[in-house]
TrEMBL record:
This is FecR protein domain-containing protein. Pfam families: FecR. Coiled coil: none annotated. Keywords: Signal.
Length: 233
């Protein structure tokens, strides 16, 4: 029996002996909402419910903001995700490395404007996807706008590799470097780079107090039950 298997068995046995229980989806909690302005919803299957400050966010659910609304989510590893109005994202996949970092985290951005600030996980753990692009990060602050037929990625800090779905890639290495991916029809897209972006998330930050503040959740979050996640559930 390998070490990972022994660890999982031991953890599950201890949980059983101690009678560990809780909400059905407690082991899926991967962060929380720290700022909510107006209408912010969680969508899980056919179920829709409002998100309030302090509510947990979980895997495989979509977070959506309404008109004149905004939200900021902070993951367990202190990744900060800010959403502008009429934006949606889905937390596709998370595999924990330990209580404050991920081995793998995938975030799918639907439509809208976002700011992404990496947390304490290894940078290779992060995978950001839009309908037109895949985005890799290296200690990064990114502004991302996803709308029908176009994705724009603006580097604010760090570095990023942006690729089309057909693996045409650009490296963003200087603040202001911007990748613009546009759909060209028949499942194809084009990518270009500029250092003079026509948009950034800055105006959205200014319009909503605290939206672009960075919260270090990992240093203050209470201990979580990661048994299921570490064991592959």
């Amino acid at each position: 029996m390998n070490l990972r298997r022994r660890t999982c068995v031991a953890a599950l046995s201890a949980a059983a002996l101690l009678g560990v229980a809780g909400p059905a989806r407690a082991d899926n909690r991967i962060g929380e909402a720290v700022l909510v302005q107006k209408d912010v919803l969680r969508i899980a299957g056919a179920s829709t419910s409002p998100i309030n400050v302090g509510d947990g966010v979980v895997r495989n659910e979509t977070v959506r903001t309404g008109t004149d609304s905004a939200a900021r989510l902070v993951m367990i590893d202190s990744t900060n995700l800010s959403l502008g109005a009429n934006a949606s994202l889905t937390l596709d996949r998370t595999v924990f490395n330990d209580e404050t970092s991920y081995r793998d985290i995938a975030i799918r951005l639907g439509t809208g404007a976002f700011r992404f600030v990496t947390g304490h996980s290894e940078k290779t753990a992060y995978k950001i996807n839009t309908p037109l692009a895949t985005i890799g990060v290296r200690g990064t602050i990114l502004d991302i706008r996803s709308r029908r037929g176009e994705t724009m990625v603006v580097l604010q800090e760090g570095a990023s590799r942006v690729c089309t779905l057909t693996f045409q890639c650009l490296e963003l290495t200087q603040p202001g470097d911007t990748a613009i991916i546009t759909a060209t029809g028949q499942g194809r897209s084009a990518i270009r780079k500029t250092s003079n972006p026509s948009w950034s998330f800055a105006a959205t930050c200014t319009s909503t107090s605290g939206l672009c503040t960075v919260t270090d959740l990992a240093s203050s979050a209470p201990p979580q039950d990661f048994t299921g996640i570490l064991c592959g559930r």
